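FAQ: What does the model actually see?

It sees only this:
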Amino acid sequence: MPLQRPARAFDDDRDIYSVARLASEVRAVLDGSFPVLWVQGELSNLAQPASGHIYFTLKDAAAQVRCAMFRHKRMLLNFRPANGQEVLVRGRASFFEPRGDFQLVIDYMEPGGEGALRLEFERLKRKLAAEGLFDEAVKRPIPAFPRQVGLITSPSGAAVRDLLAVLKRRFAALPVVIYPAQVQGEAAPASLRAALAAANARAECDVLILARGGGSLEDLHAFNNEALARAIRASAIPVVTGVGHESDISIADLVADRRGATPSAAAELVAPSGEHLRHRLVALSRRLDAAHARLRVAAGQRLNAVARHLALLHPSARLQQRAQRLDQLEQRLVSLLSNRLVQARSRLRPAAARLMPASPGRRLAGLGIGVDALAERLARARARLAETRSERLLRAVAGLEARSPLATLARGYAIVTRLQDGAIVRAPEQAPSGTRIEARLARGRLIAVVESESSA
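And it is asked to produce this:
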């Protein structure tokens, strides 16, 4: 009994990947599927070869991922990375084909903690800006002379002392109300919102100052709170902020009606200067007195002039003067027109004599002859060029047809390829018995199966 061949688990059309092809396609999928990523974790396995690149593992309690940061990006770091350090990185997902590893290619790194707060700050800033909370059009004007000022700050901090000192120096008579609030810690945003709500409910101030002294980004985190920003924007009373130092910009600063670089600067914006007002009042009083005196003198002079005119000018006399003036003007006009006509005729005669030899008609007649000659030369040159180009084109077409693979096929030859991988068959051993092949002819294709092979 003849032996039966076992059934094949796969047909001959299976698509077999090489390792390189698989790695290449995995990399293409990873590189195109993820946006730029922000990832926070702990540095480990930090390697810094002589090339200047750095390689490390970023991990947390549950997972880890390999990372690479190349030399041109590493040179921009403003700190020295170390194992065990918490960092925030920005990069893109990739696949390192030679080692078969998933990795992140890093283009930016900063220490963790404060970096996360800065990232959250930027996210909230973009969100509120898109909603229009920072637009100048929605911000309210600050009163030039407020009747009473409200301070929302810590009653025991240095900021409140600076605020009171500046307000007293600029305008000692300006009443001040303090609305106590926490300015640091987890409870600070709610405390600040409560103080702001109390100030609006009592409606006893024309303007509010929201302030605290300087500190780190974590210290100022309460002023980067979304709910607080919306409360500032919803306040019926204009809000001026004075948070931290001049370089510190918070979300509260951006949404407020005005921003002072420091608490003292915020007080300067709100309180009018008493000394300046006194000098201004004195100067205005002097200007008013001088203007009043000038007006009285000018009014007296105008009154005297009008009285003299009324006495001297009778309606009949004015009519006679106007009639005489009209006659004089008529005579001057007639004389002027006559002189102008004589002068124009005297200038016209020599100009006409000079223009006759330079008549455009004569020049155009001469130019027409030249144009006809040039047109004839152009037609002959165009005919010669077309004939030359046609001959070159025919020679090029003949050369291309002689070298065309289709011309070879038309003489009875064929191109044979294996169906399984598309490779061209150049020798019998490349297509053993049972191989499915395709023969490309001058017109059409043939599919066949090799029954036998021979190297002869």
